[in-house]
């Protein structure tokens, strides 16, 4: 049986405060608006916040799937615009510490739902910890979110460098968030490219700019996503344009297109961790 390819996009950024979760949530909705079947996974295992951002109260999380207490269908909650959300397992052990039995359960859980989705967006934690690296390595597309702060560029570079040098990853997509002008977004991308071009063998691709917009703060106060609360805002229009661009990205070729493959990559120990 031909398996349904699923595009797995990890949204990451190196540091906190760059608006990663906002990007993940609104991009998920904009893609759903384009007719894609979207699942959004909160992969911030320590400080899950997608449910808070959207005013949702999940009864179960990924931790319950890992422990075998329920299956994936019991965990997934409906979000706005038809997206489905996998709430994070706050404070649980890292994915790389799971037992073989738990690995198998998680792979099975994802394979059960893969037929019903086209895109899985993974909102990673901030920083460059093991959990972040695991999720990013397992995804096909890595979307690095940067904003106009010196630490944002430095931390994004540190993450790209780690993934490139230790795991051989060499293709990253970059989104500039909270920029005051489109030019500011392009300048941020140029700044990051300049450093990576000089020191690393990687290809960065510019995805676009999401403008600074007061509507975002208003939406957050309402515990709603800006794309739903203020669909005509500058910010929402930018997410719409970015989603249209994402729809043109090539679909994964087999076998990388299977969600089970994503989870297998996610839970396998990196080669660098095994003793010689």
Automatic annotation (TrEMBL):
The lineage of its organism: Bacteria, Pseudomonadati, Pseudomonadota, Gammaproteobacteria, Pseudomonadales. This is Flagellar biosynthesis protein FlhG. Keywords: ATP-binding, Cell projection, Cilium, Flagellum, Nucleotide-binding. InterPro entries: FlhG, MinD_FleN, P-loop_NTPase, ParA/MinD_ATPase, YlxH/NBP35. One of its GO terms (cellular component) is cytoplasmic side of plasma membrane. GO terms for biological process: negative regulation of cell division. Transmembrane segments: none annotated. GO terms for molecular function: ATP binding; ATP hydrolysis activity.
């Amino acid at each position: 049986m031909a398996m349904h390819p699923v595009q797995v996009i990890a949204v990451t950024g190196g540091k906190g405060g760059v608006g990663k979760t906002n990007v993940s949530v609104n991009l998920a909705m904009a893609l759903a608006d384009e007719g894609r079947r979207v699942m959004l996974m909160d992969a911030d295992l320590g400080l899950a916040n997608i449910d808070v951002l959207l005013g949702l109260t999940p009864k179960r999380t990924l931790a319950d799937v890992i422990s075998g207490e329920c299956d994936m269908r019991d965990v997934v909650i409906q979000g706005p615009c038809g997206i489905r959300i996998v709430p994070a397992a706050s404070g649980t052990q890292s994915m790389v510490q799971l037992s073989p039995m738990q690995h198998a359960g998680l792979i099975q859980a994802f394979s059960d739902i893969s037929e019903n989705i086209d895109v899985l967006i993974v909102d990673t934690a901030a920083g460059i910890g093991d959990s972040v690296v695991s999720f990013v390595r397992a995804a096909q597309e890595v979307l690095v979110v940067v904003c106009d702060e010196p630490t944002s560029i430095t931390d994004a570079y540190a993450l790209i460098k780690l993934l490139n040098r230790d795991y051989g990853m060499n293709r990253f997509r970059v989104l500039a968030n909270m920029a005051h002008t489109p030019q500011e977004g392009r300048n941020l991308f140029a700044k990051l490219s300049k450093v990576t071009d000089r020191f690393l063998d990687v290809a960065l691709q510019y995805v676009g700019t999401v403008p600074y917009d007061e509507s975002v703060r208003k939406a957050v106060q309402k515990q709603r996503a800006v794309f739903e609360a203020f669909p005509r805002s500058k910010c929402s229009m930018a997410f719409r344009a970015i989603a249209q661009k994402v729809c043109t990205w090539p679909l994964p070729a087999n076998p990388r297109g299977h969600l089970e493959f994503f989870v297998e990559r996610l839970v396998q120990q990196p080669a660098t961790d095994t003793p010689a």
